[in-house]
Every structure is written in structure tokens, then in C-alpha cells.
Amino acid sequence: MIVEIGHFALVLALATAIIVSVLPVIGVHRRDASMMAVATTGSLVMFGLVALSFAALTWAYVVSDFSVKNVWENSHSLMPLIYKYSGVWGNHEGSMMLWLLILVFFSMLVAVFGRNIPETLKANVLAVQAWISLAFLLFILLTSNPFLRLDPAPAEGQDLNPILQDFGLAIHPPLLYLGYVGFSVCFSFAVAALMEGRIDAAWARWVRPWTLAAWTFLTAGIAMGSYWAYYELGWGGWWFWDPVENASFMPWLAGTALLHSALVMEKREALKIWTVLLAIMTFSLSLLGTFLVRSGVLTSVHAFATDPSRGIFILCILAIFIGGAFMLFAWRAPTLKAGGLFAPISREGSLVLNNLILTVSTATVLTGTLYPLVLETLTGEKISVGAPFFNMTFGLLMLPLLIAVPLGPMLAWKRADLYGALQRLWVFAGLALLLGLLLWYMQNGGPVLAIFGLAIGCWGMLGAIADLWYRGNFGKLPVMTSLRRLKGLPRSAWGTAFAHFGLGVTVVGIVAASAFSTEHVVEMKQGQTADAGGYSLTFDGFREAVGPNYTEERGHFTVRSGGAVVSDVWSSKRLYTARRMPTTEAGILTFGLSQLYVSLGDPMDGGGIVVRIWWKPMILCIWGGCLIMMVGGFVSLSDRRLRVGAPSRKAKPVKAVMEPAE
Amino acid sequence: MILWILLALMTAIVAAALLYPLYRRPEALAPDNAGEIEVYRDQMKELDRDRAGGLISAEEAEYARAEIGRRLLAAAGKENVDAADAAKASGLRRMAIGIVTVAPPAIGLCLYIMLGSPGLPDQPLEARLANPGNDMSLLVAKAERHLAQNPNDGSGWDILAPIYFRTARLGDAELAYRNAIRLIGPSAARLSGLGETLVVANDGIVTEDARSAFEEAVRLEPGDVRARFYVGVAQEQAGKAADAKATFEEIAKASPRDAPWMGLINEHIAKNGGTVAAPAAPPSLGAPSADDVAAAQDMSQGDRQDMIRGMVDSLASKLEADPNNIEGWLRLVRSYMVLGDRDKAEAALKTGLEHFSADGSEGRQLVALAREIGLSAEGAANPGATPKMGVTQ
Amino acid sequence: MTRKQKRLAVIAGGMSFIIIAVFLVMFAFSQSVAYFFMPGDLATANLQPGTRIRLGGLVEDGSVKRGQGSTVSFAVTDGKATVPVSYTGILPDLFREGQGVVTEGSFDAATHAFVADSVLAKHDENYMPKEVADRLKKDGVWEDGTGKGMAPAKDGEGDKAGAKSGQVVGSTTP
Hints:
The complex is a heterotrimer. Chain A has 19 helices and 10 strands. By secondary structure, chain A is of the alpha+beta class. Chain A has a 5-stranded antiparallel sheet, with no helix packed on it. A 4-stranded antiparallel sheet of chain A has the order 2-10-9-8. Chain C is an alpha+beta fold. Chain C has 2 domains: 1-31; 35-151, CATH 2.40.50.140. In chain C, strands 2-4-5-7-6 form a 5-stranded mixed β-barrel. Chains in contact: A-B, A-C, B-C. Chain A: This is Cytochrome c-type biogenesis protein CcmF. Chain A: Required for the biogenesis of c-type cytochromes. Possible subunit of a heme lyase. Chain A: It comes from Rhizobium wenxiniae.
């Protein structure tokens, strides 16, 4: 009965979505406050219904109700409890449910926390959110219904894909979706503003917290996914430029650009049209990602078996929303007034540079991801665009941005008069360093590129510190005064510093892990020793072990440094019994920021086994940096300025307000 | 019934929640520009703070102040459109109230009746295991869970092993036999069961492992015909015709004349150059004993296929005469699948379900088997008799 | 600089960045894109040794040989032709004889053998690399829905494969 109640709640949510899609828009048109208010209550009701439905599905998973087809296909009664929970979104139907849940969750947040937003704008935003919810509700109910039943019920489920039975995967999708779907709010704000035909600095202020929240979660989600791929797939790689990874990375790039351009719009009312376009593009990329992943057009870990009807359905959603938004944009954008002026060298200028580079890079990634699909459709030729392409294009294009990041926050708005001798000197110092390295490279051919990359990473980190240093006016004022000044800095300034510092840390990690990591593939027999990264590993042999739903052969290694035992590590090959599917569980040993990564290969004749050992120096910086970026996002989100008090219901005398301007 | 009451209650709550703002006395709209003005005032305050903190220069502050001031003026100058007057609104609102009252029950009910399975109760596994009835797969699942928690329960493995073998889960069967032997010691039945599992898993070849299991079984219980027969087959496969003949002849001597396996034994004796003492009893067709299967493995691939086909056909005709044999139907469906004859398997399933309603416990076994081996039971099941299956296959 | 000049400078700067990006993309495509081939296509493909390609097909039964250390050799076939492949490293967990595989690498000029530097196998037991599946289906070597194809599954596993093929067996997320 619980399952059926969940099913019915989902159907009711559809009915509610239809009402919320229509009534508030009419209300705005006819200036009827009651009908606009339906948007707020409706959004709350929708969240309640979808949450109830999701809870019912989760319950079915937890109690292993195999009369639910979705549970039977993706669960197993002996699976550890946490994977019964995560199994809910470890499959197509369930992950679409999660998508929907987060979508209505954000609608609910806008309904509850959007008190400072004008009634009309809020009603329109919530209506647009309801359109998106409606589309996905229809998609779920008609093509991917998780509540279909089996009768009689089978006695045992088919188990969750073993590589998904992992803690990282349990939390990766929710985080990622919080980011992915969070951008829907920006999209709805953009479309609502276009519908009303007015966009100004205040709009940017209202959108910014949502962008920031979505961006922060997306950062966390991508980092989590990358770390999962790193330790679970057993290939030692942390980013594969897999189309699905790109699908989550593109909204992140566009979202980062949006975050920065919204800043310009809020402060200077410039870049209005561009910001609105970016808001639309960012969510369009999220939708495109959903389409690519869910339609089975792409093959990857994430692709579920292809079902053409699903693909076509999502393609329609994609076409309607993206096409509709862009048409609305083309119709309304020319009526928007251009905003404030600024000199090329100014804070605005640097943010424009940021946007230029980020969008061009996004376009590059998009090209690389879609080109094989387009080519196959047009000519039937099959090609693969792999890491070399992305490293060459994306890597090179991002370079100037990484160099410019520390300079941006130091520039003044409008016209950077302080862009004085000092900063010019810095640039020249940088150029000199570059030239010097280039010369050294021509002479020695050494790892100069890596040094250069590390330097850029450190430049990012130092730049963030320098920003705080100058803001606190350290060196000129007594230390205590400076510290007090730092304390008084707006949270968003801290957020910026954190995020930029984190970016630098990630760059250092990426460069170090790519340039200095070493890989050894050796055949080892019991008692043999191999060296990696200054440590020596002795293979002590195998032990059999049985997990709740798998059996494994665990290889034990003793790690020594200079003859003394430092640690030991287990690496194993598992066989998941229900699906008869083998997986490799890498053994990972952390030394400071660096890691030793041991992965088992095939057994050889004669009792040996192929062992792959990587030494990954400073690799934890990659995710550590993302974590710092995330902290930056949250710090910035806690800025009190984003919580401007709600306007009182009665109009204030306008005259009084105008006084400060004169 | 309770379900329907709850669903009606949910619908009512949703409709009521949506109607609430429509019935509430309409509040005056806050002026459109109020929010904007608030934001700009805040920006102004922030500017003052920055200036006071010395974060920006006086000149910059002045510029910014002028700019924000201009925005404030613009926002304040925006015209506020008045709210709709009550007369105009009431007609519209009646329509809205109508929609909100009708849509949830109408859309909700229509879609739910189309998609849902209101007649199906929840079936948490724990509850089903507590009361498994005679659903074979549930009983197996229950035993499996018991063994997962008590992996040292040898007799549990012993019970499960032959069931695994019969349901063609050979890997599991081998593991179960080995566990049983390890935990409660070898017996002839267990050893020859293990050996037979290994033989079937290896396409009829009596491997070294299997042979030693059979020999051990014979040592423990010299009268075990099955083990002795396989020892003979092993000798035969190893090319030791004389030894094989001796083994088979010994079996023949020790067995009663009319033992069902005599035909098979005599065949083997003949094959290995011996003479058959007496006319063979007809092999029991239709229910291929393990020995028959083993015999099939000595033939060429084609012959073997023919022989299996012959046995399956005889089973089919037997069932035609006496359809009330659920075991037979189950075996027939499975046999057709093993032979790769999907259509016949489906047909057999359908006929079987005509004799056993899909609701009954026997019918359920058939449906469960069909699902297990990937057959569509939907067309086969009598749609009127079964609750609607919301499954598309 | 006048305001107009400033704007021009900004636009020119932006445009030149975009142009650089376009050239970079085109250059990278010419350098690093690997075409997909099946063994049967190679006769007509006229490939230069050293050109990076993706080679897909089924791993021929009985062809996997472990050589020195971690080098493995196997043959990839599409029913029409067979190409020997050598690979040094660890094979994916689901690499099996008779199953679909995609390898990336190039033909060695001296030995004419295909030297792969990456081997991709399916991610779960029902997954067949899409390129391979498309082509094999077209050529009728492999059938969707039976899950069997060139290497019929055996005994109990056969039942299982039969039961599960053609079903949605999932994984996750974008």
C-alpha cells in the first residue's frame, strides 16, 4: 500500500504541476494576487508530494519489496543497508526521481526564501519551475516509472551494479544533482525576467545566491565523482574526459562564468543581456547533459540500456525548453537597456575576460563531446575524441585565465587607476619568468612545463592570499588593526579568496599528479618486492574473504621505506555473486598529500599476479582544492547581503528613498 | 479499501491547500519596485561601510554612489500597475477555483488507474520469508539467507545443493556440495552429487576432480550405482574399454533385472565390447535420470541432441495425456530453453498455465520459472485471472 | 584612447581569442582523433603504420595468451577478419574471450601487429561497447536479446544470461 501511495503522490504532483504552470502566469497577467499566491502554496505541495513518493520508493528498497520491478532490477536483499538507500538513485528511474525531487526542492526554497522578490517575478519564476517539473513528471510517469509492479514477486533481486556499490557513489549523485538542477532556478529567473521584460541590478542580486549554491554543490559533486572514478575503477585515473564527465563539467564552466557576470551586473548593471543568456545556457547544458546521459546516445558507466522512447522524450524536453528560452531571448533581449560603461582594464574588464575564456572553453568541450555524435549521424563514420584533444585545447585556453585570476579581485571597478607600476612590474616579472623557463626548456628539455604549471598553481594560491593581504592593509597598519579589518571584510570577499586559492591548489595537484606520477606494472609472486615512489612493496600473498554479497581475494602488501616497515595495504579482486561480476578494489595508501595506489591484474601461470603500482604525488590537492572552492562557495553564500530584508507590504514613500541619491 | 480512502484523503488535502490562497481575502500587492528599492538601499549601506572601512577611495565611492542613486531613481519612478479590481477578478477566480477543484482528482485518478496496481499489497521480503508458503524460490532464498548468516551449517548446504543442481545453478551447487562435505563430512550421496555437478558443468566430461569424488563415493558405499556408473564412464572416456566393461558388468550383476538404469548400463557394456545378458528394460523416457543424461554425453554432439530431444518429446506427449503434473511442465519448459527452442518453451508455458491458473501456487511456480529464464509470461498468463502486471517486456 | 577605440580593442581582443580557439580545436582534431574500425574494414582502409585508431570487435575464443610479464596478446575478430593485438598492462575486469572489446592504439610498422595502449571492455555483464554492438548487429554476428552471439553461454549461466539480456540493468547518474 505504501508503494501505491507513493505512486499516487507522483500522479497528484503532476496534477499540481499543471495548476502551478498555468494559474500564476494568468495571475501575473491579470494582476491577481491570489492566483499568484497559488505558485507559492503549489510549490510547497509539489515538494511534499514528490518527497512522499520518493520516500515510498526508498522504503520499497529498504525492505526489499521485489514486487516493485525497479527494486527487483537494482537491489538485493543481502546488500548493505546504505547501498539499499543509494540503490534508489543507482538506476535510471530512481535517478530521474532524484532529479525531480531536487527540482521541486529548489522550487520550494524559492517559495519559502523568496520573500524579498517582487510578487510577480516570484510567481513567474515558480511557474517556469513548474513547467520543468511537469515535463520531468510526464517523462517519469510515461517512460521511466519506478512504481511498476511484478506479480508474483521474485524471491531475490538482481543486485545493484557492483561498481556502484560504494560510498562515494552513494553521495555523488545527490550532490551533483543539487548543482545540476540548482541552475534551473537561474534559468527560471532568466525566463521570468524576459517574460516581464525587465532586468536590472536587483535581479542579479536575487539570482546570485541560487547560482552560488548550485555552483558550490556542482563543484562538490564533480570532485566526488572524480575521486570515485579514481579509487573505484582501479585505473588510477581521476578524469577521463568521458562524455558524461564533460556533461557535468560544462554546466560547471558556464555556471562559473554566470557567477562572475552576475557580479558585474549587480554592481554596475552592465552585461545584462549576456548574463541572462548565460543563465539560460547554463541550465541548457545541464539539460543537454541529462539528455546525453539518459538517452543512451553515449556509452559509459552511466549509460543505461537504450530505450529510444526515453531518448526522444528527453530530446523533446530539451528542444522545447532550450528552443523556447532562446526564442524568448531573441524576442525580448533587444528591448533591454545596455548598462554601465567601463574601461578594458578594470574589475569589469577582468570579469569579461573570465567570461570570454570560460565560455570559449565550454564551447571547446562541447565541440569535442558532440563532434563524434554529429559526424556519426552525418557520415556514419565513428571516431573517438579522447583526452589528448581536451588536454590540448582546454588546457591551453584555460592558461591565460589561470594567470589572470589573482589580478582580477585587485582591480577597481569601472576604471582601474591603481593598475600602477607595481602590477605592471608583476606582469613583466611573470613574462620574464616565462621567457627564462622557455630558454631553459630549449637548453635542457627538462620538466619545465611542469614547473611552469606548478608556478601557475602557486600564483593562484599566492594571489588569493595577496588579495586578503592588501585588503587588510597588512604591513602598513599594525597587525591587530589589519586583522580587525580582515574580520570586517564582507563574507563574499572571503569566499572569492577561498575559491581562488582552491583553484590554485587544484591546479598544483593536477600538474603534479600528471607530470610526476610514476607507474609500475610488474609481475609479482609471493615474497617478491617492487619499488615505487621511494617505497618498496612486498607482496605477502592472498587471503580469501567473504563480504555480504561478494567474495574476494585480497592481496596483502607490506610497504617499507629504507628497510623499515611503514605501513601495509590490501588490494583485492572481488566477485559479486548475484551478477557474477568481477571488480578490482584498489589499495590506496596516503602519505601526506601523495598516494600510493596498488591495483591487481590477472593471475599468471605459476602463481604470480600482475600488479600495477602508481605513485601519485600531491594528488589529494586536486580534490582538496575543490573542497576549498566549496568552502569559498558556502562562505560567500552566508554573506548577509544576500539576505536583503523583505520589502514591507506597504509602499514606502518614494521621496524618502530618493534622498541619499541627491 | 483503506488504500482508496487514503488516496481520496490525499487528493482532498492537495486540493484544499491549492484552494486556500484563492479563497483567502486578496492582499494588496506590494508595489513592484519595493524589492528593488530595498536592494539598492542595501547597496548604498554597503558602500558606506566599505568607505568607512577604507576599502575604496572617496572618489570611487562617489562614483558608485551616483550610479546607485540613478538606479534608485529609476526604480522608484517605475509605475505600479494597480491590482485587478474585484469585479474583474471574481470571474477569473471562479474559473481558477473550478480548475483547482477538478484537476487533482480527475488527472490523479485517470493516470493512476492507467498506471497503478491498486490491488497489489506491499511485499517486503522479510514478511514473505516469514511465511513463504510453497514458493520454491522463496524457500531457496530463505535457506540462502540462513546460510549467509550461518555459513557453517553443513546440513543446510546439503539440502540446498541438489536444489541448486536441479535449477541448473551449477556453480552454486558445486559450492554447496563442497561446503556440505567440508562441514559434515563426505557421504556417497554428497560426493556423487558433487561429481555429477562437475560433470554437467563440464559438458559431460568426467574430470579428474569428478572422478576422484565418484571413486571416494564408491569406497564409502560400494552399492552406489550412480557413482559406479560414472567411474565406468570415466574409464570409458580415458580409453580403458576393458576396465569400463568390467565396471558396467559389475553394476549389471549387482542390479535387479528390471532396474530402470539397466538399459543404459547394457548400452555401455555393448559399447565397450561386452555382450548384454538380457534384453534391456526400456529406459524410462520423459524423466531423464541422471544416468540417461550421462549416457547422452558419450554420444556425438548431434546424437546427444537427438536423444535429449527424444526424451523431451516423450515428456511432452506424456504431459498431453496427463497434464496435471506440475513438475513435468516445469521440466518441459526448462528443457526447451536448454535446447534453445524459445518458441516451444513459450508454447509449453502457455499450455501449462492453461492447466494451472497463474494464481494458484503451481501456476505461480510456472510464472516464476518463466521470469527466471527470461520468458514472457504475460501473453501466457490468463489476463482475467491475474492481477494486472504493470510490466512491459 | 577614445571610448570607441577602447571598445574596438576589447572586441578585437575577444575575436582573436575565439579565432585562436577555433584553430586550436581544428588542429587538435587533426592530431588526436581516433577513427573506429572493425577488423573487416582494415583491408580497405589503407592505414599508415603509426596512425592511432580504435579497433573493436569480439575477443576471439582461445586467442588470449599471456606473454612475458604483463604483456598480453589476443585476437580481435568481427567474423570477417581477425587482427592480432598485443597490450601491456592490466586488462579490465570484464575482459573475456568471446566478449566485445574496444582497443585503442596503432599498427607497428615493423611487425604489422596492432599494439594497443588502452583496452576497454564492457562495464557490466550486459554491456557491449556501443560501436561494436551496432556493427555486429548490422552484420548479424551478434544479436541483441539473446545475449549469446558468437560464444553461447553455458549451462546455468546460459539461463541467467538469457533471463537478463535485453533488460535494463542499471548504473547511475550523469
